[in-house]
Amino acid sequence: MLPGMENGIRYRGRTFDAADVAFIQEQIQANPERSRRALSRDLCLAWGWLQPNGVPRDMVCRGLLLLLHRQGQIVLPARRCVPRNNIIHHRRTASAPVVPGDPIACALADVQPLTFRQVRRTPDEALVDSLIAAYHYLGYTRPVGEHLKFLITTQDRPVACMAWSSAPRHLGPRDRFIGWSPEVRRAHIAGIAYNTRFLILPWVRVPHLASHILGRMARSLSAVWQDVYHHPIHLLETFVDPERYRGTCYRAANWLCLGRTLGLGKDARGTTPNRSLKEIWALPLAADFRHRLGVS
């Protein structure tokens, strides 16, 4: 038994025991010239550690390998290259868009029809990133995991941007609202999408536009997610900073306020908040959403 492996290691919803660690080291020794990236991909295939769309979870696996390497459980091959930090890169390169032109101030009917375009991995993704970096009070942060970005336009003029990503793994008020156990949550957390950014551009003044966009997104997001990631979405969620906003557009779009966070980020020590408390808002996408999220 390897020291520190008596009870195995729990990582991203899986438990790895001494036999798994021995298997990893055997794979390293069998082909010492193999890169860390290739090793993680091969391990994912051997273990069936795949995303719902069948893509190996090799980035997550590389995190596990690095953890085991730092603990002295395995010895990884030397790193061949240092990849760029995409978060820092995108923060540096995101720039403000062109001058917006005339303000858009009118009734909701006058901006119809609105066009919703999913822009991740398209030429317009840079525009959405730039708009969020320039005009959202939180700026732009490159998401990780599953994520989609939308550009909403009227007559080819941008009026809003939305970004969605994988949900936080644990939120007390949300988890109590769903009523799932930790085991069920780990198995079904992919069924929740988190609205990381919602931006109505500052030159747009259209009453009820925000709640209208939220309603449109609620009707279409799951299908788009299914096309990209091969699984549906059953619940939407977001954070609202009550010191800045009242959540009016979410309430108008029938979202529910589930409570507040504890203000404990991932770097928190103990129970002392290290960031502002946020309201947690959620919208079920089906009457039987709890069943679809694994609650019997």
Order of helices and strands, N to C?
EEHHHHEEHEEHHEEHEHEEH
Proportion in helices: 25-40%
Summed up, the helix count is 10
Which word captures the global form?
globular
Low-pLDDT runs: none
Give the strand order of the largest sheet, numbering strands 1, 2, ... along the chain: 4-5-6-7-9-11-10
Structural class: alpha+beta
The profile of the biggest β sheet is:
7 strands, mixed
Gyration radius from CA atoms, angstroms: 22 Å
Residue share in β-strands: 15-25%
What average pLDDT do the residues reach? 87
Distance between the termini: 38 Å
How many β strands by DSSP? 11
What's the structural blueprint in terms of helices and strands?
Layout: E1 9-11, E2 14-16, H1 18-30, H2 36-47, H3 58-70, H4 86-93, E3 104-105, E4 114-118, H5 125-135, E5 147-154, E6 157-166, H6 172-178, H7 182-188, E7 192-200, E8 204-205, H8 209-229, E9 235-240, H9 248-252, E10 256-260, E11 279-284, H10 289-292
Parallel strand pairs: 3-8, 7-9
Antiparallel strand pairs: 1-2, 4-5, 5-6, 6-7, 9-11, 10-11
What does this structure look like?
There is one protein chain. The chain is α+β, with helices and mostly antiparallel strands. The protein is 34% helix and 20% strand. It is built from ten helices and eleven strands. It has helices at 18-30, 36-47, 58-70, 86-93, 125-135, 172-178, 182-188, 209-229, 248-252, 289-292, and strands spanning 9-11, 14-16, 104-105, 114-118, 147-154, 157-166, 192-200, 204-205, 235-240, 256-260, 279-284. The strands form three sheets. A seven-stranded mixed β-sheet has the order 4-5-6-7-9-11-10, sandwiched between helices. Helix 2 (36-47) packs across helix 3 (58-70). The protein is globular.
